[in-house]
Amino acid sequence: MNTTKTTHNRRSFLKTSLLSGGGMMLSVSWLSSFKSADKRQVLNLPEQWAMLNGYIQITADNVVKLLCPNPEFGQNVMTALPMIVAEELDVDWKNVVVEMGPHDNTKLGPQFTGGSNSIRMYWKPLREAGAAARHLLRQAAAQTWNVPVEEVATKAGVLSHANGKSANYGEMADKAATLEVPKDLKLKAPKDFAIVRKSKKNVEGQKIITGKPLFGLDYRVDGMLIAMIQHPPAFGMKLKSFDASQTLKMPGIKEVFSLKLYEDGFEQGGFDTRTFNDLLVVVGKTTWEVMNARKKLLAQWEPVGDTKDTMSGRGGKREVVVPGGLESTSTQLEKMQELSQKPAQQLRKDGDPETAFQHAAQVIERTYNAPFLAHNCMEPMNFFAHVTDEKAVLAGPLQAPGWIEPTLSKILNLPADKIEIQMTRMGGGFGRRAYGHYLTEAALISKKAKAPVKLIYTREDDMTYGIYRPMYTATYRAALDANKNLIAFHVKGGGIPEHAIHANRFPAGAVENYLAEGWQIPSNITIGAFRAPRSNFNAAAEQSFLDEVAEVMGKDPIAFRLELLKRAKENPVGKNNEYDPDRYAGVLTLVRDKSGWNKPGNEKYNRGVAAYFCHNSYAAHVVDIVTRDGQPYVERVFSAMDCGIVINPDAATNMVQGAVVDGIGNAFYGALTHKNGAAEQSNFHNYRLIRHNEAPKSIDVHFVENDLDPTGLGEPPFPPVFGAVANALYKNKGKRFYNQPFQNEMDKRM
Amino acid sequence: MATYNLKINGKIRQVNVDPSTPLLWVLRDHLDLPGTKYGCGVAQCGACTVHLDGTAVRSCQLPASAIGKQAVTTIEGLSAKGDHPVQKAWLEHDVAQCGYCQAGQMMSAASLLKTNPKPTDEEIDAYMSGNICRCGTYLRIKEAIKSTAKK
Ligand code: FES
Ligand code: FES
User: Fold this and answer.
1) Which partner from A291, A454, A549, B71 sits 20 to 30 angstroms from A67, CA to CA?
2) Which CATH class name applies to A534-746?
């Protein structure tokens, strides 16, 4: 058994209290992780912070309610996180009620869905919370029955003693709430898990299949108005003037106005990214009326020119110049080509790569490109806001309420405790909903309209707004000696507006002479995190390049990677290598074995392999392509994952399968291009998403079995799909694909 | 504005809307039936799929004026207790990720199975390809449809 010190744990602090209707509540405060008292003031915390709410609530009539701290966007945290609590609490999963928690970072932790962090960050605190509650219930029973606590057993929510006494948790909850949380807690050994590692169905499954109003777009209150924003037609443009007379004549329209999102000099935090600052807003009664009336607006637009943004947050306060101009994809590609020839910033250097390349018997050099990608969450951006002079209530889909709250507080001039943010289920997120500009917009609109308002982005608004996956390029070079040994590796990556290079990732650490460089081109096209930021390009380019290098060396692509990993393990080059070579090799050998790599019986498939490490987990895929009607289709996929302990195996499998489908779709079709600043795609007729008939027939997911603390799974399986698809396509088409989306380099499929 | 008496999930519901208003927004904004989802508004994603006299249609493309006496069924009315074979299969296969597309997927699947109780993989692909799932749950949707077909 593990013992964990509750009071000395800096990350969390447990507190128990009585529920008002009888029963107990156990809270975990994250306050203790803050170092200074100032933080408390900055956060504007109420004195009695720990008494208000918590993860675990057990009522006197034995209802066990577990709160999910993190917003749900399909990664199934609403099931997995409560499973962790229930495991240590020892309750019957059937009797557990799960609810989305309120936004309260002091009681429910960071509450951020992203970076594949939910499980990793909450694993320990939630286990502690469950174990502490169980201990207190046992102690309450021990005192009531007058027996030593060690002799009180629990089983599925029932306390018992060998003398025949028994009680359910509810009966002891009142008393338990008055007891002190112990200093040391025993956590279960993984071999004793009864809930974790056993697949549990989505706790919201029944609501989803019956069409219950779970999503932000479904949220409504009496008297709620609908608002839409008319954005400029292109990046680099802004509102000059408008005539709303025709719009105001349309039925159901209340008002039309313009407002500024951020005042000049507003200090933007890292996730306050916004594309347009002058908002032209139409407010009316119903969605259809507002949609139609918006079309009647007569607006004049003008170029923004260079603008200065004041940024705070990571990197300190600074001014950033956003260049004006109307950008086009073709000129962006030319600019990238030009910059790629110029000196760049050195990110890591091991050995003497320059000399190694000079003396190489053979140098392989390849350049890879990838376009902007739109997230295209199935539920477009939207948010409800009701702002008055006293308070603000907001509800809708977002990934990080704690990041937008300070922004709202400043802009609305309301203290944080007067801002309530409710987290609805999200119709997808993929990183997009970490950028809360649409909450701020909704709040300002509500304030100005003096009414509860739902801001809705149409699909077109959503797709053309920006906050895209950046546009990337990278040139890889490998130096081979006369015996075809890899003696040096060089990657130089660039992008608009950032490069993707993770300099300390594989194959850094495995090659004697190594150089990583990066450069970037500023742009007014806004970008943001997109499922496995940067990794989603690196894995495509690097894993494709390694495949080609292995081929030149005359090696099997898996054997070649395993050789490099062996080197990285036994005699690592350089410092700060981010990956664990054993775990990396583990997913490769697992996928090799499960897919029957190099084994007979797979001749009808064109096979490609790739592996990658990101967001603390390891992934490898073998992709099998067949030709149907003259076109390549991914028919089968084998996936191997190492994310430590798998909390909910069937849901984890679902997520890996989804990431594989998403990867195939984006590799073949994903692209957001521009002409004179305007997005050239606006809806699903010209932005192609993968559909039923293009999905593989099977995706066979395997997990490395170990007892390591769990890490995330939303992002890690995604990046290597691109590389595996590229490598399988090479086998199918006889030529390498260097530019995404691959469909553009093939005959038209549709 | 015009008044319509629409037959929705077995009940007559009166609405007063502009004749051009798509059924999607009639359901969502006027009848408090938000189970039918908006995804694209241009017949490209299938999130808004409902049944019109038992057949799947895209409600974002169907103006209120064109419904007449035809019976509309939405996800809320697919079954009384959420136990339509398709709904049960969806639960059994734990299909949903974010879940946003799934009402539309189920309405399409129910319509497919009504006319073709034992569809082949190719028939499922052909019928379902108008329904996008951004989370990529296509394999489970197909499994769920096939398991219903077996029963
Ligand atoms: S909303 Fe009707 S098909 Fe997309
Ligand atoms: S489950 Fe998310 S779009 Fe289908």
Assistant:
1) A454
2) alpha beta
